[in-house]
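This section describes the prediction task in plain terms. A model, or a person checking by hand, is given the sequence of a single protein chain and must write out its three-dimensional structure as a string of tokens. No templates, partner chains or ligands are provided. The sample shown here is typical of the held-out split.
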Amino acid sequence: MAKINYLKVNEQYWDSNSELYHDAHPEHFDPDRHPSWGIWHLPESDLKIFTDDLPAGSRIIDLGCGIGHDTTGFARAGYEAYGVELSSGQLSRALGEGAAGFVQAAAERLPFRSGVFDAAFCDHGAFDFSPPRRLLQEAHRVLRPGGILGLCTYSPLLQMCFDNQSGTVGERLANPYGDTRMQYGGDVVVFHSTYAQWIDMFRDCGFSIERLVEPIAPAGGATYFKEALDRNWAEKWPAEVVWKVRKT
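The expected answer:
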């Protein structure tokens, strides 16, 4: 693959598609659904990635916050929540309900001092669209010792079952395991990693792993992302993974 400026490509993509994306996902404007995890909006109050560890008032940063639906959700839950987003198009629609602030920046170059955050959050944000090792290094820098990083991204199984021609997820393995860590379909750049790659990166970047959650779609629940993923598939196999790691 020829070298491309993934930040520029992705910024232009989200600047151009932000309105269409959020028009298709009105649930992002529903405060009762946030903070939550993944494409099924599983409540943080159920998964408890942060809830049992962080007291009210803890400082948290949302990496690739979009319009800030989860940033404001954490603010309503009592946290001092900041959102960081690459796209001005996304931030132009940002919700401002109690958030400590929104900043336009690349998540691999955060405009914050070292050690100022108690936790970092990413739900299909920057970790889907940037090299994860760079993001882990930067998250480690801005977290205090013992700070928590929670991130949700697509599962390796989903990536293996994704049909690049049809743009859908099927019940047959379509791609080799660990085939690539960067994909560019002509409009947006995305990054994928295997479990082994994640574990090595966490270790190398100074994190210890505390939890790995492999959520499946709640049976009979709503479908929010209809573009590629069939609910029947996601009720049988995990489409996503949620990692909880801690700065050592």
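For orientation: The chain has a mean pLDDT of 91.
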